Amino acid sequence: MKFGKELASQMVQEWQAAYMDYNELKKLLKDLLRFRQNHALPSSPGPAARQRSLTRRLTMYRAFSGLTGLRGSPRKNEDEVILVSALEQEGSDYYYQTMFLRSSEEGGEYELMFFRKLDAEFNKVVKFYKGKVEEVKREAEELSKQMDALIALRIRVDKPYMGMGQGFAPAEVRVAATAGNSAPATVIASINGVKQGEQVSAEKNRKDSRSFRPASVDVLDHVKINVDPESPVSTLRNVIESSKSDLSFSKEELTKAEEKLRKALIEFYQQLRLLKSYCFLNMLAFSKIMKKYDKITSRSASKSYLEMVDKSYLGTSDEVNRLIERLEATFIKHFANGNRRKGMKSLRPGHKKERHRTTFFLGLFTGCSIALVAAIIVSIHARNLLNHEDGQYMDNIFPLSLFGFIVLHMIMYGSNTYLWRRFRVNYPFIFGFKPGSELGFREVFLLASGLSVLALAAVLSNLDMEMDPRTQSFEALTELVPLGLVTVVLLITFCPFNIIYRSSRFFLLRCAWHCICAPLYKVTLSDFFLADQLTSQVQAFRSLQFYICYYGWGDFKKRSNKCLESDVYEILYIVVAIIPFWSRALQVVNILLRLVWMQLVLDFHEAPFLHRRAMVAVVACLEILRRGIWNFFRLENEHFNNVGKYRAFKSVPLPFHYEDEKIM
């Protein structure tokens, strides 16, 4: 794989504008190469010309810069191509500038343009990286304070008899105090750790620990617990009262605080790892592009430039590596009981592996679905069900097509996931999926094809049992087939066992519950995205409503019902269509109802060339297709918003709130 594609595949998509523009620099080098080839330029000019050009450029450069940022006198080397300097700006920031010494040569304007673009890209990368490092240092300080409060709360919960005036040392410091001769060479004092560049020996740790004044549990007097709305009742309580409450020192409170801080540390660790990767990839990109420049021009400019890169903040800063080491040690000790393998497994979840059996079963179920569709078409034509005068089958059994609407919607979502991944839209981050648990397009298609096989098999068995003389007497069993299918699907959806993508099923159920209880939960993108999907499944809800009436109050043994004659049913028929829109309306958004949904809500679906039920199905399918197209552009727009704001991480709520920030 070429480096440009490899860089694009490994970069943080939300930060892509902050990476070195390798492709643009490569394009400039191609223009330079084309010029040199067209003009048959030699690999390098003569010695006299090089010396005259070098002397003139050095004189101009010294007069211009006053030797600012240059150490010692420039080398009068006839092979020297560039001079790189770090010009100090306001504060402690530096602006890196390259002086190209061969611009008077033929084609020198191309090389000058290349180095100007190279400097602009390097300064952009250094500025972004330094800003992100400052952000993570501030976040590390806040997490360190959260750890202090958590350790104090643990001590207070485990030893409730301990008075508030008695002190204790945080766990990391107490390790240094009690480790004796086995104390490690570098001791983790906190997540924020020691000052930059400070290395602490074991002997020094033991001396410091004897003079260290232990932190007091009195810190809990200045801390409140952040209460997140976990239910509609708690949401209303937060509205009436405060979202922060006093500590109760209970086991339940400690468990919730530990879980919140654990998630925050894991998210922070991923942020540090991506920041480290950002630094590495950019340094590698500058090395690659300079070597390519040397190869095209037969010069030796890469050594000077890469020395500057190595001495810059990008090459010398080690804060991220130290934060990673300290966070690993803290997490392993406090959240993995000292088990490094367990702790690292939580911090670094494994990448999702593509399984061949997924592809195999996808092909198997797809083939079965096609065969079942062909068999159903033959059965329907054999019995002439579409033109049957009494219309019993179309009125009572055809609503089973609600599973067809769901399968179609799943196919559209699977297509969306394929396109999102194809165009590098970070949909797992946008939806808030747990890393490694998101479904790819193959898994979505597998579920869609599996549900299709279940639904089609149920339809075909119902038709076959009616046509077979041996089973015509089992009329009750025949009519219970649709009910059995709905029951099986619901059992699978709510199954508590870790089968059939449990984490994804529970994520869907949680979002659905938030939609039902809107606006009593904080609205996230996944919640209102699901609510939008539900507005396109109105006909499926109506079919489900029909089956409740059909099996609850109708005579399903004779395949007859009076649901459509009931005024209550007619009212609910409209209400069910409005519920998804109402749920979406209750979520901080204005909804413009499409013209097709006026047809569905008001029940206008007469057509001379189609059965009434078939017309409803066609309109519902068109809406699902429209929704699938809308989904792609909606998430792409969200991705562009994240890219524009360099937003690559979710804000994780912290468990504790310090009333007085000066106490730390």
Automatic annotation (TrEMBL):
One GO molecular-function entry: inositol hexakisphosphate binding
Primary location: membrane
SPX domain sequence ranges: 1-307
Bilayer topology annotation: Multi-pass membrane protein
Gene Ontology terms: biological process: cellular response to phosphate starvation; phosphate ion transport
Coiled coil: 126-153, 240-267
A GO CC term attached to the entry: plasma membrane
Protein keywords: Cell membrane, Coiled coil, Membrane, Phosphate transport, Transmembrane, Transmembrane helix, Transport
Entries under Pfam families matching the protein: EXS, SPX
Cell compartments where the protein resides: Cell membrane
Regions crossing the membrane: 360-380, 400-420, 441-460, 480-501
Stretches assigned to the EXS domain: 438-664
Superkingdom, taxonomy of origin: Eukaryota
Database matches in InterPro entries: EXS_C, PHO1_SPX, SPX_dom
Record bears the keyword Transport: yes
Function text: May transport inorganic phosphate (Pi).
Family note: Belongs to the SYG1 (TC 2.A.94) family.
Name of the protein in its database record: Phosphate transporter
